[in-house]
Design brief:
alpha+beta; Elongation Factor Tu (Ef-tu), domain 3; OB fold (Dihydrolipoamide Acetyltransferase, E2P); Helix Hairpins; 3 domains; six-stranded antiparallel β-barrel; 4 helices; about 35% strand
Length: about 400
């Protein structure tokens, strides 16, 4: 009886253990069956919306004076006075230097005296020639005497013309003793002082006058950029902006924007062989004298208007192993797709896309690291930090070339 009782107890314990194990296995299976589905990644997207923008190019350049006049004497002499203050504004016709005029005054008086003498001899010579001409019919004088009298009259008239020219020359030289400003502008330092001997057309200028209002800005543009710009216009991707296309903005050396717009005058037709660039000349008003010749500046030149421009944030663009730009978009089924892009340039924090995207495409901006092509995602609108989603300005800022 005891043996049977022990066997029954062991069997009962074994059944209890077995039932417990089966219960644990069933619970485990139920837990595995009730596990939640994989979590769908959330990404921020923007919808591609083409819009019209004004494309600009930022080019380095230097300022140069609108007019430059180097003051040189046209006669020899001693400088008696300097009649201007260095670094000041002078007017056209203002006397700058006075050369000792004594020699030129004496030469003028001498020429006037000789002219008076010649004019005084002419009446007597004319009367003699006329009287001899009247005596020819009576054969009272020879033909030789008449011819000599006529020649003497012509010689007297030629002497008068010669001395008149000498008087004019002496007056001009006397006027050159007063050296005047040929243009209005700011005059620099004087290279001579009172008492200095100067010579006509000497190589060293006495001073230099520069007209600074308006002022030129000369900007070199590479021929490759020029050809690219012309090609965009021929393809119809870039429309001229009318009169506004000739308006140019200026960025100064300290990064500030000059408060006046300039006007593009012309593009040079000759390529500099040392730089491979053509020169653009822009004229800027400069009433306050802010711009000085030789300053380094950056000119923002308008290329034209691109009517259907596509701009996407730079953070939405990645590179494949070969360095080609790509973007991830979300299709209508909510799956991620990769598209290769062709970029034109960077405009602030955005890329200008030439091809690869179409209107309505939803481009992933945030969450790129969490998804791969073919994955299903949940999309939310992208909002920039500190922005309520306002659309960017239709006018592009200075652009940097993109790849």
């Amino acid at each position: 009886m005891q043996l049977i009782k022990k066997t029954t107890i062991k069997t009962f314990c074994l059944l209890v253990v077995t039932a417990g194990l089966l219960g644990l296995m069933l619970a485990s299976c139920q837990q595995k069956t009730a596990a939640p589905p994989p979590r769908t990644s959330e990404v921020s997207t923007i919808a591609v919306s083409p819009r019209s923008i004004v494309l600009t190019t930022e080019l380095p350049g230097r300022t140069s004076a609108y007019r430059v006049a180097e003051i040189r004497p046209q006669v020899n002499g001693i400088i008696l006075k300097r009649l201007f203050n260095e670094g000041t504004e002078v007017q056209a016709g203002q006397v700058l230097y006075q050369i000792d005029p004594a020699h030129f005054q004496a030469t003028l008086e001498n020429a006037k005296a000789a002219l008076g003498k010649a004019e005084g001899n002419r009446p007597a010579i004319r009367l003699r020639a006329e009287r001899l001409q009247e005596l020819i019919p009576d054969k009272a004088v020879s033909q030789q005497e008449v011819d000599d009298a006529a020649a003497a009259l012509k010689q007297a008239e030629a002497d008068i013309q010669f001395w008149r020219a000498m008087v004019t020359t002496a007056q001009i030289n006397l006027g050159y003793a007063r050296i005047t400003a040929p243009v209005t502008g700011r005059i620099g330092k004087s290279n001579v002082t009172e008492g200095a001997l100067v010579t006509a057309h000497q190589p060293l200028p006495l001073a230099t006058i520069q007209q600074l209002d308006p002022i030129y800005v000369d900007v070199p543009q590479s021929t490759s950029e020029l050809l690219r710009w012309k090609r965009r216009q021929q393809d119809g991707r870039l429309n001229p902006n009318g009169a506004r296309q000739k308006k140019v903005k200026l960025i100064l050396e300290d990064g500030s924007v000059y408060d006046r717009e300039g006007t593009l005058q012309f593009r040079d037709v000759t390529v500099d062989p040392s730089t491979g660039a053509v020169t653009l000349r822009v004229v800027f008003p400069n009433p306050e004298g802010t711009l000085l010749p030789g300053m380094f500046v950056r000119a923002v030149v308008q290329e034209g208007v691109q009517e259907q421009a596509i701009l996407i944030p730079q953070q939405a663009v990645s590179r494949d192993p070969k360095g080609n730009p790509t973007a991830l978009i979300v299709d209508g089924a909510g799956q991620v797709r990769q598209k290769p892009l062709v970029l034109d340039r960077a405009i602030e924090d955005q890329w200008l896309v030439i091809s690869g995207l179409a209107a309505g495409d939803r481009v992933i901006v945030e969450g790129l690291q969490k998804v791969r092509p073919g994955a299903a995602v949940k999309t939310v609108p992208f909002r920039e930090a500190g922005s309520a989603g306002a659309a960017p300005s239709p006018t592009s800022p200075p652009a940097r070339p993109g790849k």
